TrEMBL record:
GO terms for biological process: nucleoside triphosphate catabolic process. PANTHER family: DCTP PYROPHOSPHATASE 1. Residues 99-122 are annotated as: Disordered. InterPro entries: dCTP_Pyrophosphatase, DCTPP. This is MazG nucleotide pyrophosphohydrolase domain protein. It comes from Streptomyces rubrolavendulae. SUPFAM superfamilies: all-alpha NTP pyrophosphatases. Gene3D superfamilies: MazG-like. Signal peptide: none annotated.
Amino acid sequence: MTEPDVQGLQRRLAEFAASRAWQPYHTPKNLAAALSVEAAELLEIFQWMTPDEAERVMDDPEAAHRVADEVADVLAYLLQFCRVLGIDPLQALSAKIDRNERRFPVGRPPGRAARPDRHSAE
């Protein structure tokens, strides 16, 4: 069995939605809303946990299953959102990391962005 790739997963999700005639509902707005809801459901699992309990959440098989399911839901909606808008999620992430490496140079105190050059194109 081969490892899944982003495009393959996007294709499977699109086929799944198409076979159920869900495409009219998969608008950028609806997918962004669904993504937000699923992210909130992931957060809900951790809502009343202490930091130590959160670190050990995957030790409990039932909690681990819930976390994995919510991660899958978040990723599914994110991949569908990207497909609808023509965004390559891996390229978008790589570009964001590049920008953050410039914004937050090594050695700068945490949370302090570098001052942007007023004449740069960023």
